[in-house]
Amino acid sequence: MSNALSLCESTAPAQDAIRWRRSYCPYCGVGCGLNIALRANSVVKVKGDPRHPANFGEICAKAAHLGPTVGAAGRLLYPHIRERRGGALRRVAWPQALAYAAARMREIIAAHGPDAVAFYGSGQLLTEDYYVFNKLAKGFLGTNNFDSNSRLCMASAAAAYTAAFGTDGPPVSYEDIELADLFLIVGSNTAWCHPITLRRIEKRRQSAPDARVIVIDPRRTETADLADLHLAIVPGSDIALLSAMLAILVRERMVDEGFIASHTVGWDAVRDAALAWTPQRAAHACGVPAQAIVEAALTFGRARHRLSLWSMGVNQSSSGTAKAAAIINLHLATGSIGKPGCGPLALTGQPNAMGGREVGGLAHLLPGYRRVDNPAHRAEVARHWRVPVARLSPGPGLAAIELFEAAAEGRVKALWIIATNPAVSMPDLDLVERALRYAQLVVVQDSYHPTDTSAFADLLLPAAQWPEKEGVMTNSERRLTLVPRLLDPPGEALADWEIGALFARHMGFSTAFGFADSESVFEEYKALTAHTPVDIRGVSYERLRKGPLQWPCPAPEHPGTPRLYVDLRFNTPDGRAQFNAVGSVDAGEKPDSLFPLVLTTGRVRNQWHTMTRTGRVAALMKAAPEPYLEIHPLDAAEAGVTDGGFVEVRSRRGLFVAQARVTGEIARGVCFAPFHWGRASGPFKAANNLTARSRDPISRQPELKLCAINVTPVSRPDISGPDLGTHTNRAHRAPAGRPDLVAEDFE
Ligand code: SF4
To answer: The whole model's pTM is what?
Structure first.
């Protein structure tokens, strides 16, 4: 069944011989290169690859502990069918599983049309995985309902880049970190979520004493500890702050009038709107001193090489696109783009969120940054796929939350979920559960089982994971790395692209999905990028085996492109960048007398997403074995909450129960809870019981960072299912020496 099986490098080595191979970290968008020690069919050690330009040999604890996450334990090994809801899963052979899926899909499409089916993928997927399912949904089934959890990660950044520069794509490289003298870090706990990037910033600080770091975050995180200036703003007030900073730059004549006049449009309206934000007005909105806002603006204005980095605190918002646009406006106003050490860099959460954008893995996109609503783009793609153009739907498909709303309302009948766990990661979990119960067919294609999502599956399909499949990933700086297949998948697990191709063949599309291997998928995709901003015709597996490359890379002799827009021509029709209006207030749920506090959610040190992988490593669980709620001492006193005591946290949607961490490291009026736990760990351990479904109107990215809550103390509750757990409220921040950067042995 698997042509790819012949590509496995691990055939017949001596059982105890150690082989070192190069690989790539499957966790976050930093995209670190790894050196992997293999013995037989297991990973026995992981080190950083000193030759990889994303990390130069450093790795964090998550990568160091990758070994125990592979192998058969806790893995989904065989296809299973659940013939009736509430019934048991029954192991079946692959042909039977695929025939069942094809029959049910045909039935649903015949009765309700192609938009009654939807696929929900993941930034964990390889570019080849994305390509095959995207081609199947949009080119052959006739629906644009292929979206991914990247919608929850960086859709707002992609929308803001597109609005400003004409197309998506971060303009800078990590090497700009070593050239910058000002780091504006907004809504990102880089120290925990992108630790190797933070390490590079720390090193730059050490080597350039004049370099400055400004952190904008409601929490005093380890990233904020690095800052010369930390602005602990009220969640959702970013636009007020960034607009006031722009106004100060205007008043102090720190903008680059020449660059603005020659290379941009839309300045007057943006400038005039920003000037309405005095430091005092912004201080009132943001809850920080006016003088701190002035200092931030002047520090930004005086710097020569300005690099801005942002992440979920900006993107996961009902104003996420506007917030990201406000950051980009600062760069356009000061001409800080297209030059060494300058530019706006959105840090992607997942290892191949960037690749997903490039290959069209969102409901409004087609490969090569094309759009489904553009007739010329549809025609180009239809030609390449050899299908009638009418097969490609012009309407944007359902995006993440919309997709689950449609399933809960009965409009989407079949949900195919790949390499992600929405029953933990999506906001408003009641909605997600309703969708999973109400859909007529739920296919879950994953490496692990059980998960909160796989519990709802009618059909379970076992997927290979890192490092059991070969393909390409793109990191936050547009760098493509080949992830090699180094181990045999356990049981009957197959590469995700291969499952997609086999299913397509069962649907009758044998010619178009007759891929021999992942390389042939990549070759077909790369031809589609010709003459697009993400042109990678010069990239091949052969070249990538020698080292990673940054796009665009249009020819085999092309060295790749570290920095975009160096000629100051943008991908807009007139070549000028666009200033974008950002509005004046953030949308989103506001606190009131019933729900007087604001909740923001996020990650804990060393955990990855919904813990299907990192949750299996005891060493990674040490920092936070249970969910918790951070609350300011004054808010705690008002609510009668004590440090270490249990609290009930309620929003308009649900209940969360955890121990309180009373800490001055969070702003007054704001609470924080990690989102990693789902209801399977205990029905009230899921922070996404609380979060709201509101979303950005442009990017359609949900507002995971802000909802209104109340907090009340409870005696140790018995409502949590298996084990609510307790922890001492010990310091959860890093002791000296940054253990998250220490690669420990797990052999
Ligand atoms: S920072 Fe850590 S998790 Fe992210 S890619 Fe690098 S090693 Fe992996």
So the answer is: 0.92
